[in-house]
């Protein structure tokens, strides 16, 4: 997992993820994080099927899938909409997701990384961007996570 603090623009390989990151930064304005209400899905149809919206509850910390994009659901053969991360059926991937999402909360800024998934008898490489959202501008209460399928590996 890569969690690079600061500006991620030069680290993001996928052009659509770079474009979405620029959109998120513009929506921040003078705040650390935009709110969910600042984000209009019609502004990013180029990645919409790859978006997850994750509700973040604190005390105790819990992640709930508010939205699991249609492209993700089709590729992964799994729809997590409405379920908590604890309900994810793949323990190793669940642990990866928890670690990467906690990373956003710990560093209080967007993070970015790559991961490999075995799908349809081949290993695929994905790039992901994890963008914090906040209703009050300070406490992260939602994550917007977007994945992009890169080339197959190996």
Would you write up a description of this structure?
With 154 residues, the protein is of the alpha+beta class. It has a single domain (15-152), classed as PAS domain (Beta-Lactamase, 2-Layer Sandwich). 25% of the residues lie in helices and 30% in strands. The chain is built from three helices and five strands, in the order H-E-E-H-H-E-E-E. Strand 3 (111-119) and strand 4 form a beta hairpin. The protein is globular. Mean pLDDT is 88; it is low at 1-5.
Regions with little confidence, pLDDT below 50 for 5+ residues? 1-5
Alpha carbon gap, first and last residue? 19 Å
- For CATH, the homologous superfamily is named as PAS domain
Largest sheet: 5 strands, antiparallel
State the helicity in percent bands: 10-25%
Strand order of the largest sheet: 2-1-5-4-3
Short description:
The chain has three helices and five strands; from the N terminus they run αββααβββ. It has 154 residues and is of the alpha+beta class.
List its salient traits:
154 residues, globular, disordered N terminus, 5-stranded antiparallel sheet, Beta-Lactamase, alpha+beta, 30% strand
Reconstruct the topology from this structure.
Elements: H1 15-28, E1 51-57, E2 62-68, H2 70-76, H3 91-107, E3 111-119, E4 122-133, E5 142-152
Antiparallel strand pairs: 1-2, 1-5, 3-4, 4-5
């Amino acid at each position: 997992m890569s969690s690079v603090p600061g500006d991620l623009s030069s680290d993001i390989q996928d052009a659509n993820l770079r474009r979405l990151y620029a959109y998120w930064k513009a929506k921040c304005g003078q705040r650390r994080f935009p709110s969910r209400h600042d984000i209009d899905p019609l502004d990013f149809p180029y990645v919409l099927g790859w978006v997850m919206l994750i509700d973040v509850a604190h005390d105790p910390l819990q992640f709930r899938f508010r939205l699991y994009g249609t492209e993700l659901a089709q590729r992964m053969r799994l729809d997590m909409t409405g379920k908590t991360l604890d309900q994810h059926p793949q323990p190793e991937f669940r642990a990866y997701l928890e670690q990467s999402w906690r990373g956003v909360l710990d560093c209080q800024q967007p993070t970015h990384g790559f991961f490999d998934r075995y799908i349809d008898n081949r290993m695929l490489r994905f790039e992901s961007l994890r963008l914090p959202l906040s209703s009050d501008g300070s406490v992260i209460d939602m994550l917007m996570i977007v994945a992009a399928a890169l080339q197959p590996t190996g």
